[in-house]
Structures are given as C-alpha cells and as structure tokens.
Amino acid sequence: xxxxxxxxxxxxxxxxxxxxxxxxxxxxxxxxxxxxxxxxxxxxxxxxxxxxxxxxxxxxxxxxxxxxxxxxxxxxxxxxxxxxxxxxxxxxxxxxxxxxxxxxxxxxxxxxxxxxxxxxxxxxxxxxxxxxxxxxxxxxxxxxxxxxxxxxxxxx
Length: 156
Known about the structure:
It is globular, with a radius of gyration of 17 Å. The strands form 2 sheets. The protein has a 6-stranded mixed β-sheet with strand order 3-4-5-8-6-7, covered by helices on one side. With 156 residues, it is of the alpha+beta class. The chain has helices at residues 37-43, 75-92, 110-116, 120-123, and strands at 18-22, 25-28, 31-33, 48-51, 54-60, 100-107, 130-135, 146-153. Strand 1 (18-22) and strand 2 (25-28) form a beta hairpin. Helices cover 23% and strands 29% of the residues.
C-alpha cells in the first residue's frame, strides 16, 4: 500500500494543480503569476512561479504598469515601490513577508542602499530572511537603482 501525504501551502493545492502519474509519483504543476502581463510578456518572464509550497518571485524594480521607471534617482522610494509590488504578489498567493525565507537585493549603489536599508525593518517585523546584497554594474534599465527578489515557503 502506498500513502501520499501533502502539506498545504499558501493556498490549498487544488485538484487541477496535481496529477497522480502512478501510485508513487505526485506531480505538482507550476502556477504562474504575472503582475504586469504586457510588460512581462514583452521581456519574456513571469513575475512569480509557485510549485507546491515554494514560490519564486522575480526581482521587483520600481516601475509603473507600462514598464517605465519610477522614482528615478530616489533609492528609498524605489525600494518602497519594490516592496509594494512584492506585497501584491505575496497577497495573491495568500502569503505575507513572514513567509519569505530568502531575499536577494541587487543595487547599483551599495552605500546609498545601506543608508535606506533600515526601511526593511518595517517590512520584516518578525525577523529577517536569509539572503544576499549585491552591488551590480547595472540593472535592466539604467534608471533602476535596486531590484529585490524573494523565495517564499509556507507550510501549514
């Protein structure tokens, strides 16, 4: 006799998300989420993908719904805009920043990012996730100063 146990995730796994290939194999289909469908299709990526109880969220940057940079030259506001978009994605999956296990921040100006990084304490009120902070030569557009990507895990 074979038993299959599933842990619930940010949202319960629906029947259409899973297939039993045989008695021993469970396949969980990825669930894709597009925050700005036209922009993401044009650049060829999905903003988030959920597989089981893991969600990978692509780097958020400070842009409007047409893909134009916002808060140009203002690192703190760009960071806040990134977290606003990330919150929308987490909410879509029934998660919060408490479910974030990894956060990677890419910036074109580390000293400036360090000056405003205290804002993260308003986001992560119950402890910070693991992650890396990297200074890079450039991001997708020259106006972008910071990009934040997340990995989320939630088991209930």
